[in-house]
Amino acid sequence: MIGFNVSLLFDEGQPNNVTVTDGNAVAVNVNAPINAPITARSVNEDLYIKSLLAEKDKMLAEKEKMIREKERTIQILLKSQVKQ
After folding, report:
1. What value does the CA radius of gyration of the chain take, rounded to a whole number of Å?
2. If you placed Cys at 3, which of 21, 23, 45, 76 could pair as Cys (CB 3.0 to 4.6 Å)?
């Protein structure tokens, strides 16, 4: 026998937990509906994440530039040692 919460069939709000029973009890935590609308908060979170990614990309570009400069300096030093 499979049991479920009958209140799911009625518009009584979103349940916090759904319990399905077929000899074993299973609880599923429901935090948001599957078809949750895009909210201002999610849009703000997207913008925040995009700004963090842009900042990360900028930092990586700066680090790559520093590495190229260090490599160039090393090559100059190595060439100067060969001449001596």
Report:
1. 29
2. 21
